[in-house]
Amino acid sequence: MDSSSIVNAVLKRKYNRSYWGRIARRCGGIIDRSPRISIGWVRRTSNTAAHTLANWAIVEPNKTWTDDVPV
Length: 71
Hints:
By secondary structure, the chain is mainly α. The chain has 3 helices and no strands.
C-alpha cells in the first residue's frame, strides 16, 4: 500500500476493511468536520523538506518544533 492509494481513498471516501482503512475513515471524518484541512499527495522527490523532517524525527524522537510552520 502506498501513500497515493491512501490519499485517494480519503478523497473518494472509499475505505477498505483493513487497519489502514479504519484510520483513513477517521481522517476523512476529521477533514469533513474542518473546512480548513485538506489532503493531497506529492511525490517524495518534490517534497524533500517533509521527507528530510520525517527521517530526522525517526532519529531524534524527543525533539519539538517550536517555530512557525515552514511556508
